[in-house]
């Protein structure tokens, strides 16, 4: 029986990669010996690939937002035609507001928090072959994802140069 040094899941001897965190059992760096530094051997993702992953995430967010907006308008229109909502509801809607912008930012933050906290990657990162890991090489945690999510607005203000 083999045991993954990161998550602790046990596997039969014929298994080569941990199903949970993709750790290779044939990798000599999987030793629990602290002299092996996973950080030293982890490939670095450059600025361009990170930018592409963020761009894909933004496009994915737009698609989800437009689909949700379409469903919301359709629902409100159906409720309006059924007489559940008072006539003139269209005139009470506003195009943009501070609340809408804050809700969009919160939705983006929650998306990154859960995707990176649970799986270690958002849709954009998956498309680009990237995965978020902690500094010791272990899979990302919710705490790490939360810190990344809080730091992103500061990093984005400087066009990603802080994280670079």
Number of beta-strand segments: 2
Round the mean pLDDT to the nearest integer and report it.
Answer: 79
Order of helices and strands: EEHHHHHH
Number of helices: 6
Distance between the termini: 41 Å
Oligomer: single chain
Q: Percent of residues in helical segments?
A: 40-55%
Q: Write down the Rg.
A: 22 Å
Unreliable spans are 28-40
Structural class comes to mainly alpha
Output the keywords:
about 160 residues, mainly alpha, two-stranded antiparallel sheet, 6 helices, about 50% helix, elongated
What do you see in this structure?
It is elongated, with a radius of gyration of 22 Å. With 164 residues, the protein is an all-alpha fold. The longest helix is centred in the middle third of the chain and has 35 residues, at 47-81. It has helices at residues 38-41, 47-81, 89-92, 98-118, 123-128, 142-157, and strands spanning 2-3, 10-11. Helices cover 52% and strands 2% of the residues. Mean pLDDT is 79; it is low at 28-40. Strands 1-2 form a two-stranded antiparallel ribbon. It has 6 helices and 2 strands; from the N terminus they run E-E-H-H-H-H-H-H.
